[in-house]
Target: DMSO/TMAO reductase YedYZ molybdopterin-dependent catalytic subunit
Amino acid sequence: MSRADEKPPRPPEKIRLADHRTSLVKVERRLLLRSALSLGALSMLAGCDLQDNDSVDKALWATSRWNDRVQALLFRGDKLAPTYAASQITNPFPFNAFYDQASAPDIDPADWRLEVSGMVADKRPWTLERLRALPQAAQITRHICIEGWSAIGQWSGVPLKLFLQAIGADLSARYVGFKCADRYYTSLDMPTALHPQTILALDFGKEPLPTEYGFPLKVRVPTKLGFKNPKHVAAIFVTNQNPGGYWEDQGYNWFSGI
Ligand SMILES: Nc1nc2c(c(=O)[nH]1)N[C@H]1C(S)=C(S)[C@@H](COP(=O)(O)O)O[C@H]1N2
Ligand SMILES: [Mo]
Model:
């Protein structure tokens, strides 16, 4: 790890001071050094020393974009996130957002539409009814938050690949971006968008997503950290320009996954 000796450029003040930063670089370091580990195994490691702060982490912070490339190289299209038994589901499931639970957006399902734009042939908005008419897939997977907790949940909904095909998306484009009802936003690389476990989740457990867990639609991406799983999604777009994300634009590693 010779890069640890280099003096990294200083990230903006507000990011250096954020509590999140230390846990971010820890996870990055593990993704880098232990890229063969599953995200599930990473979560076990993440619990132990998130409070530390050392020079290796500082150097890795500075090489975040380099890490993105390394992680992209390590990603294989056939790599699946671990799945679990129904008896392992975490109850109650933790809530997280950049606001408190009571402030989660209250969305009327009758008015809601999923907007579609960018490099796609069919830009008609989608109702919940039309989304539910598409084939659905279920998964019991582990959600891992960069803040150092993880939880197992069950989600089901439309595989994003199937949806992208349905709207005639240019699958050679580089990114799929998501905009949410609460001003949150994030984006995925196209290989992850096409990954078989990446779904437009409509149900949590056996019921429609509860308000605070992302009603009416959450993109569930078990190969990525929690912040790349947008809740209350209102718009999807396909683009060659990296759309970034709410946390990504404040310094979190954009790739953050396998
Ligand atoms: N719209 C929206 N999506 C979001 C967030 C948010 O604040 N707003 N927070 C992210 C983060 S950091 C986490 S850990 C998960 C939390 O999802 P949960 O409430 O189902 O546990 O949502 C992610 N998606
Ligand atoms: Mo998170």
Notes: Strands lie at 115-118, 137-145, 149-159, 175-180, 185-189, 199-204, 207-208, 218-220, 233-239.
